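Summary for the steering committee. One of the milestones for this cycle was to obtain a three-dimensional model of the protein with D-mannose bound, which we needed before selecting residues for the alanine scan. The sequence and ligand used are listed below.
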Amino acid sequence: MQQSWRWFGPDDKVPLHAIRQAGAEGVVTSLHHIPYGEVWSVAEIEKRQHIIAADAALGLRWNVVESLPLHERIKLGECDLTPIFDNYRASMRNLAACGIKIICYNFMPVLDWTRTTLHYPRPGGGLALRFDATAYAAFDVFMLQRKGAEGDHAPATLVRARHWFDHASLAEKDQLLASIMAGLPGAFDRYDIPALRKILARYDAIDASALRQNLKRFLEEVIPTAEDLGMRFAIHPDDPPRPLLGLPRIVSNRDDLRFIVDAVPSHANGITFCTGSLGAGVGNDVPALAREFSAHSYFVHLRNVTKEADGSFFEADHLAGDNDMIAIVETFLQEQARRKAAGAHDWRLPFRPDHGHELLDDVDKGAFPGYSAIGRLKGLAELRGVMLTLARAQHLPLA
Ligand code: DNO
């Protein structure tokens, strides 16, 4: 599998040479400075490519786009979307012209990944990302004061949430809002509470089936172009995989993934198999999902979570937590072997160690939440060990 590493561009506190030291060669990036919905020009794409490849000794190249973001209006299905789809296809053509063929995107309304704490202490002083059911309920019911929100939380959680809200300082409440908003790295839209209420209201009439139709429409607009260009689309699952703030989420479980791959059947229409996002879903058997959907997966995010009884979870070490990472990796190595045997030129599956704890000198370095240097280096090293061992034992091609 192609060892890759997410890099947020020249503003990323983790420099390119650190990627090489960690042992990755693929760089996963996005043009975060271009507003959603505008065209990515060849000049801007090449500029980023040149920065990545500037020091040839590092041997790095941009292999996956994460993400080519969707304008919110595509998810909302609002107004005339023709110019937005045209722009999206123009960006696709420009990326393909530069040799970049794998596009990761998501279809989460309003928010991307969502956590309530970015610095959850682990034994020894490492820091992890955490989603806490109590803090989330306090935000939803008492800070946002969303109509009907009480019904979306367990009674015992509501009692704890009320207590949290009554005792939290203003700074703690601000911190909670900032943590919830942190999942939009590099994005233009950051919401305060009034702005969040406004954007949520635009989704009032959109339930899960309407959102699914909007996703299907998007796929119908872009997948034929992707086929022509030899591109692979890879939708990222919802994180966490459940409705949030009353918003529907439609990339959360087996049925959702099935709907997506069947909505527009095509080798260009695939999945980013994110073990951490899917792994936070109580009903998701992630190794089984990997077996079922590996043939549709064009990009893999490897990380783990530990779930708690009330719906909270935190990000565990890459090889610890609730999901059997060894079994999952084995499935993807076998899928690579299958692709290679079938003669596919792009049989190597890019993966990245997704998120990492803040460890040792990571602390206070100001990297994007989840995207520390040492924490991810550790995750990648562990995963590489698993891959080498499995590949040798089962005579599977590695990369
Ligand atoms: C979290 C990431 C997501 C992902 C997007 C893809 O760290 O996995 O932010 O990049 O959802 O569009």
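Key point for the committee: The chain has a mean pLDDT of 96.
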